[in-house]
Design brief:
Layout: E1 3-11, H1 14-33, E2 36-41, H2 46-52, H3 58-66, E3 69-74, H4 90-97, E4 102-108, E5 126-132, E6 145-147, E7 151-153, H5 160-181, E8 186-191, H6 197-211, E9 217-222, H7 223-232, E10 239-242, H8 244-257, E11 265-269, E12 274-278, H9 295-312, H10 315-333, H11 348-357
Parallel strand pairs: 1-2, 1-3, 3-12, 5-10, 8-9, 8-10
Antiparallel strand pairs: 4-5, 4-11, 6-7, 11-12
Helix pairs in contact: 1-9, 1-10, 1-11, 5-6, 7-8, 9-10, 10-11
This protein binds adenosine-5'-triphosphate (ATP).
Domain Isopropylmalate dehydrogenase-like: 5-355
Cofactor: Mg(2+); Mn(2+)
Organism: Pigmentiphaga soli
Length: 364
């Protein structure tokens, strides 16, 4: 039987809780699709840093390099800081080390769950934010130019290679979504080209890449206007592509559009490795209480299976991904469960159990 090695990094806080939910669902999925998903649990995170002095052990990193895919919970605790005062967040080190340049954040509404927006069109939000993960303003991380106690400079770095590959990624994603939906795809570039030379350069490279994909509509917006548009008319967007810091901020904004962080999955994808994690953090305010909504983690596991299917050519994995997505749709649409995040009474275990119980072959 085909077998796949999955490096599992649960991390801290609710990362651990939602990872147990994902493991329970994947356990059922593997039986249904006749594949072995070997989950290898590995230490890393802020608590591990407190315990051992190392946030991301070399051995964990080696296992990630050798695995077929990486499943990641959440890492970081508010009271745990490195020497420069920033939080311990090894996920950024992993992105850099494994060159996971595309942060893919899909957002969609689910029937049966309310959206914070009142307009009826809000029931049909379905967009993907593609965040550049390896440069932009995050390039400054660990390189802050501290000039005494009077001034600090952080530098935004935009390269042709980094921009071209993330824009290519966004256009190819739009092509796949268009093939699936039958509609013309669209990629919207989000920048601040009216103020920064780096952002004008990002837009120039975006337009060069867009010219190679004439079948996909392409346009650009300034990040401030896009913050407005993403609240006013998010249902009009398809794929968005943007610099690292803007992507960091906008991914929380778009998660809010569909009801909260617990609904926002993500993939950090490079040419060689793929890491899949919920877009949320460790949520110390609800950790340890069983209240976390595991949906984002479950949908991230589905994204992982879909990505693995594309790489391996193993269609059973794509069936597994579709199975999780349909089960999630079904448990919400039927009203079987409602996450506490939406004012319901169902916690992590109840939602995981309901989704595992609703897993059916995609064609059934
Ligand atoms: P980070 O900086 O690590 O992304 P953060 O401080 O921005 O983390 P989160 O940990 O994502 O924040 O939490 C933001 C808010 O969303 C918190 O109030 C948290 O309780 C809530 N939240 C996050 N994830 C979930 C979830 N899976 N289920 C329910 N509530 C969640």
């Amino acid at each position: 039987m085909e077998s796949y090695r999955i490096a599992v990094l649960p991390g801290d806080g609710i990362g651990i809780e939602v990872m147990h939910a994902a493991a329970a669902v994947l356990e059922t999925v593997q039986r249904r699709i006749g594949r072995i998903l070997q989950l290898q649990w590995l230490p890393a995170g802020a608590q591990h840093y407190l315990d051992s002095g190392v946030a991301l052990p070399d051995a964990t990193l080696r296992h990630c390099e050798q695995a077929d895919a990486i499943l990641f919970g959440a890492m970081g605790l508010p009271h745990v800081h490195g020497a420069d005062g920033t939080e311990i967040i090894p996920q950024i080190d992993l992105r850099m080390h494994l060159d996971l340049y595309a942060g893919v954040r899909p957002i969609r509404t689910f029937e049966g769950l309310p959206t914070p927006l009142a307009r009826p069109e809000a029931a049909h939000i379905d967009l993907v934010l593609v965040r550049e993960n390896t440069e932009g303003l995050f390039y400054a991380r660990g390189r802050g130019d501290v000039r005494g106690d009077d001034e600090v400079r952080d530098t935004m770095r935009i390269t042709r290679q980094g921009t071209a590959r993330i824009c290519e990624f966004a256009f190819r994603l739009a092509e796949r979504r268009a093939a699936r939906s039958g509609r013309r795809g669209r990629v919207t570039n989000v920048d601040k080209a009216n103020v920064f030379a780096s952002m004008a350069f990002f837009r120039k490279v975006f337009e060069e890449v867009a010219a190679r994909h004439p079948q996909i509509a392409a346009d650009s917006g300034y990040v401030d206007a896009m913050a407005l548009n993403l609240v006013m008319k998010p249902w009009t967007y398809d794929v968005l592509v943007t610099e690292n810091m803007f992507g960091d901020i906008l991914s929380d904004l778009i998660a809010a559009l569909v009801g909260g962080m617990g609904m926002a999955p993500s993939g950090d994808i490079g040419d060689r490795y793929g890491l899949f994690q919920p877009a949320h953090g460790t949520a110390p305010d609800i950790a340890g209480q069983g209240k976390a909504n595991p949906t984002a983690m479950l949908l991230s596991a589905a994204m992982m299976l879909e990505w693995l299917a594309g790489r391996s050519g193993d269609a059973a994995l794509a069936d597994g991904a579709a199975m999780i997505q349909h089960a999630v749709e079904q448990v919400f649409a039927s009203g079987q469960v409602r996450p506490m995040e939406f004012g319901g009474t169902d916690g992590t275990a109840a939602i995981a159990q309901a989704v595992a119980g609703a897993l059916r072959p995609a064609h059934a």
